[in-house]
Amino acid sequence: QVQLVQSGAEVKKPGASVKVSCKASGYTFISYEISWVRQAPGQGLEWMGWISAYSGKTNYAQKLQGRVTMTTDTSTSTAYMELRSLRSDDTALYYCARTHTGHYNYMDVWGKGTTVTVSS
Amino acid sequence: EIVLTQSPGTLSLSPGERATLSCRASQSVSSNYFAWYQQKPGQAPRPVIYGASSRATGIPDRFSGSGSGTEFTLTISRLEPEDFAVYYCQQYGSSQFTFGPGTKVDIK
Fold first, then answer.
1. Which residues of A23-41 are buried (b: 16+ CB within 10 A; e: fewer)?
2. Beta strands A92-100 and A33-39: pairing type?
3. To which H or E segment does residue A21 belong?
4. Do B46 and A110 touch (CB under 8 A)?
5. Half-sphere exposure of A77 toward its Cβ, with a 13 Å CA cutoff?
6. Percent of chain B with pLDDT over 90
7. Mean pLDDT score of chain B, rounded to an integer?
8. Which residues of chain A have pLDDT under 50?
9. Could you tell me which of A30, A111, B86, B108 has the fewest CB atoms within 10 Å of its CB?
10. CB B32 to CB A44 under 8 A?
11. Which of A45, A62, A113 sits opposite B99 (nearest CB)?
């Protein structure tokens, strides 16, 4: 079945970087984009950006431009999201999601999430 | 950036009742780029409606979506116990996705 398996929880200090992975299986990896969405404790969903697994083209949320980098490794069907210069308000559950773009734009399969805690 | 506003913030209903959730966009959105998601505590979101009115895989027909332009609606015709959750609307425009703040549907 189609699934996205994310890496484990991370604890980082302010100013550090974190890199979260998302391994896809059950479908042709390069046929879709991967979005990253985060959710701060008790809050709503915030889209961070997406990457085309086929071309590597990225599209980041304006708010995170300059701090986030999304990449893929097609040999292992894995997507990565790196966030730099971490602050306490980056503490959140980070999801990857298979994303349809083109005729319909939405996210149909989600990972279970990776908790990132930023604390001194 | 297109801003989405959802109402009400919380909807308290009983099983078997009809739920009507609204999402308003700050500017016109393509219907093809509009979706609704359901999120239960401790779980990832899952799509309910995409393209404003198409049900996602595995979603029962008591869920329906409608609307266009700046006004969209998610209707649950008869609430089942498993439908009590938070629902988010989502749009894609100007190369950016945005989500609404969510509507919590809880048991009255």
1. bbeeeebeebbbbbbbbee
2. antiparallel
3. strand A18-25
4. yes
5. 15
6. 96
7. 97
8. none
9. B108
10. no
11. A45
